[in-house]
Amino acid sequence: MRIGIGYDVHALVEKRQLILGGVRIPYSQGLQGHSDADVLTHAAMDALLGACALGDIGKHFPDDDEKYRDISSMELLKEVMGLIGQKGLTIGNIDCIIIAQKPKLAPYIEDMRANLALAMKTDIANVSVKATTTEGLGFEGRGEGIGAQAVVLLLPVF
Ligand SMILES: Nc1ccn([C@@H]2O[C@H](COP(=O)(O)O)[C@@H](O)[C@H]2O)c(=O)n1
Ligand SMILES: C[C@@]1(CO)OP(=O)(O)OP(=O)(O)OC[C@H]1O
């Protein structure tokens, strides 16, 4: 078995959509990035790549490549899963946390889990997504950005 950790942060800005775990969340701001800036899916991908010692998402999907401009991070996740499969590995479980002062994410968590599970070809029971504020502290607490962390366990395909 292999374990991996992922962490990512994107800035909150005007005139961008807020997409987390492939879910479009109604909010006055969205995340800035070259792709759709889905910070949760980015943390999940970095955990998956890390578990296989395959580098990080910047290595696989460079942010100076026009091919990836505004791309759905769920599409990138599917590509990462192809690499995991080539290594003879599959998802054991993944646990993720989104660090965001606003908006309230609880209503969208189940849809995020479902999207991630579908892209990762695993049962939703293997996918945990949680959210926390920082009680107003730090850059997330000031509403300057949103962070996400993920830890994944990969198991051999039998
Ligand atoms: N953006 C967020 C942040 C948190 N939640 C939910 O609220 C609970 C309490 O948050 P604390 O930071 O005070 O621990 C948390 O456990 C989440 O369920 C949320 O929905 N959206
Ligand atoms: C996903 C990629 C590629 O479009 O761009 P961003 O959306 O800017 O995300 P980031 O986490 O900064 O780095 C990975 C990138 O190369």
UniProtKB/TrEMBL annotation:
Keywords in alphabetical order: Isoprene biosynthesis, Lyase, Metal-binding
CC cofactor note: Binds 1 divalent metal cation per subunit.
Cross-referenced PROSITE patterns: ISPF
Gene: ispF
Task of the protein: Involved in the biosynthesis of isopentenyl diphosphate (IPP) and dimethylallyl diphosphate (DMAPP), two major building blocks of isoprenoid compounds. Catalyzes the conversion of 4-diphosphocytidyl-2-C-methyl-D-erythritol 2-phosphate (CDP-ME2P) to 2-C-methyl-D-erythritol 2,4-cyclodiphosphate (ME-CPP) with a corresponding release of cytidine 5-monophosphate (CMP).
Gene3D superfamilies to which the protein is assigned, alphabetical: 2-C-methyl-D-erythritol 2,4-cyclodiphosphate synthase
Subunit structure: Homotrimer.
Organism for this UniProt entry: Syntrophobotulus glycolicus (strain DSM 8271 / FlGlyR)
Enzyme class (EC, first level): lyase
MF term (GO), any: 2-C-methyl-D-erythritol 2,4-cyclodiphosphate synthase activity
Protein name: 2-C-methyl-D-erythritol 2,4-cyclodiphosphate synthase
